[in-house]
Amino acid sequence: MKSYVAALGTAVPKYRTPQTEIANFMANILQLNPAERQRLYALYRASGIHYRHSVLSDYSNINRRSFYPDAPNLEPFPTIKQRMDVYEREALSLSYRSAKNCLQQLPQFNPKEITHLIFVSCTGMYAPGVDIELIHQLGLSHQVQRTAINFMGCYAAFNALKVADSIVRADTNANVLMVCTELCTLHFQKGKDEDNLLANALFADGSSAALVTRQKFDNAIQFSLEQFYCDLVPEASQEMAWQIGNYGFEMKLSAYVPEAIKQGIYQLTQQLMNQLSWSVDEASLDVQEKPDFYAIHPGGKRILQVIEQALSMEKADNRFAYQILQQYGNMSSATILFVLKALHQDLTVADNDKSVLGLAFGPGLTLESMLLRVETF
C-alpha cells in the first residue's frame, strides 16, 4: 500500500521585511565601516531573497524595538531564556495556522481521524510543548500518538516524512499530521565573522504542515511517497553546525557548503534512483530518466546553482525553490513543504504519474533525497 501527501499548508508571521531593510539593520547594529557595509550589501543583493518574515518587528523598525534593547550595540544582548520565552509565545499560533491551512485543503476530511502528530523544530523547545498544545487547539483526540523531531535543521522535514510514511504503511487506519515550525530570527548573533554574516542574510521564520495518509480523495492531486535515500559527507561535518549558546542558538555555516553538496549530490540522486528501480515494478522511474519536477530546499542561491550544475538542470527546473527563496528566505525545516506546495498549486490532471525529486541538506553534512509521484483521483 502507498502513502500519500494529501494536503499541504503554510503560514508566516506578520512582520514581512524587505531584504534591503534587514541589510540596513545589520549594518547599523554591527557598526560596520564603509568598506564593510559595501561587502554586506553585496552579500544581501546576491542572496536572491527579496523578503523575509519574522515574529519580531525589530528588523524593519530599527528606531522602536520590541525585543532587542535600544542600545546601539543591543546590550544587554537577549539571553537564551528570553529567546525561548518568545518561541513559547509565538510557535503555537504559527503552527496552528499552518495546520489549519493544511486541513482546510480537504474539507471532506475529519480532523478527528488524525491518529499521529509529528512536530518538527530546531529553533526552540519547551514542555509540555507545541505538539500537546496543537492537539488541544485543533480539537484532536487526546489519544493521538506524538513524535517530536528536534535540532536536525533544514533536512528535518524529510525525516518527518519518512516517519509518517512508515506509520501509514504499517497501520491501515493511520492519518499523520506533520508540522514544521521554525523561528530562526530569534537567534540573530551580532558577530562580524563570515558564518554569522551569511546566516543573518538567509534565515527567516515560517511554519508548514502536511497530511500523510493512505486515503485517496476525490478530485484531488496527491503526492505518493515512493522512495527515500540519505547520505553523509563526513569530511564536511563541521562546515554546517548548530549549537546552543548563552545568547541564542549559534549557526556555523561555511562558504564551502555549496561545494560539498555539489560533490555529493549526483551520487546521492543516482543511489535514490537505483534503490527505487530495485524495489518497484516496471512502472518505476528508470535510473537514467530525469525527474519531471524538482522540489529542492533553497538553502541559499549558490546551493541551488551548484545542484543545477551537478544534475544538469535548467534554472527553470528549479523555479519553485527560487520562488520560495525570493519571497520567504530559508525557513529551515519548514521550507521544503513551502516548495512542495508551490509545485502542487501548479499541477493539473495532465501531470498524473509525473515524478518529483526532492532534496535537502543540513548539519552532518547530511544529504537527504526523496522521490514522489503525482497522482490524481
Describe it for me?
Helix 1 runs antiparallel to helix 2 (34-46), helix 7 packs across helix 8 (301-310) and helix 9 crosses helix 10. The protein is of the alpha+beta class. Helix content is 36%, strand content 25%. It contains ten helices and 13 strands. The model is unreliable at 278-287 (pLDDT under 50).
In short:
By secondary structure, this protein is an alpha+beta fold.
Descriptive terms for the model:
10 helices, 2 domains, Peroxisomal Thiolase, Chain A, domain 1, nine-stranded mixed beta sheet, two-stranded antiparallel sheet, 13 strands, alpha+beta, 377 residues, single chain
Number of domains: 2
Q: Which architecture of the largest domain does the CATH hierarchy give at level 2?
A: 3-Layer(aba) Sandwich
Can you tell me the CATH superfamily of the largest domain? Thiolase/Chalcone synthase
Read across the widest sheet, the strand sequence of neighbours is: 5-4-6-7-1-8-13-12-11
